Amino acid sequence: MDAEEARRxxxxxxxxxxxxxxxxxxxxxxxxxxxxxxxxxxxxxxxxVPGLAGEPVEAKNERAAxxxxxxxxxxxxxxx
Length: 80
Hints:
Blueprint: H1 16-28, H2 45-52, H3 63-78
């Protein structure tokens, strides 16, 4: 894929409305070349995984629980 074919969308995970808009645009403008989207959490993945599994998050980084909620919400919205 060359640079003219590549396209990236930036999305914020902190707010449900932002997630809904991001997913809506991704679905509306999807092509057969769409691969998905990367997620960057900026925290240790081991701190986020318990929250994704529905377990309490006990991490030094206070954002780990917030990130787990945002990623989980995005996944549930994308599945609809």
